[in-house]
Amino acid sequence: MSNLEKSSYYVLILMLSIIGAILFSFTEFGGYTAYYSYSVNLQSVFSNPDLIAYSPIYLLLDFLFLLNIFLSLKELNIIKLSFPKKSANLGFFSSLGIFAITTVSGVAFVALLSDAGDWWFGAGFYAGIIGGILLPILYRMSMKNASASSTQYNYPPPPPPQ
Questions:
Q1: 123 pLDDT exceeds 50?
Q2: Is 115 a member of any domain?
Q3: For residue 18, how many other CB atoms are within 10 A of its CB?
């Protein structure tokens, strides 16, 4: 795989991870209305004791988004970190974790609030779902191209003239 192809995948992973981390951290995951309008976001999770159960989810998903940021920076040779050589595998599974945790959290959110009145998903939820779908695809494409380029035939040089 050429350096341009490799860098283009990791630039996309970097941009998608930064956007996902910002949206997940600073916008609401969802909200509901029961006499008052409540918003479930990072600030409300730590300030409202009723929502403290969401704090490990927020911290874990923020960690996974940040891990993808650092892995893409490592693959672009911008920073030097001691991550394993197979960092694409680590990024692939961490991005699958983003999708799985966001999906389970969304299902739990709906199950808990289905009878509470009006509820909605916010940009934080959609950032987790979209990032959890696109990041594994980009990692898989980069791993596929890396394995394809390593299996190209390297013919031996012709023998020297006699």
A1: yes
A2: yes
A3: 15
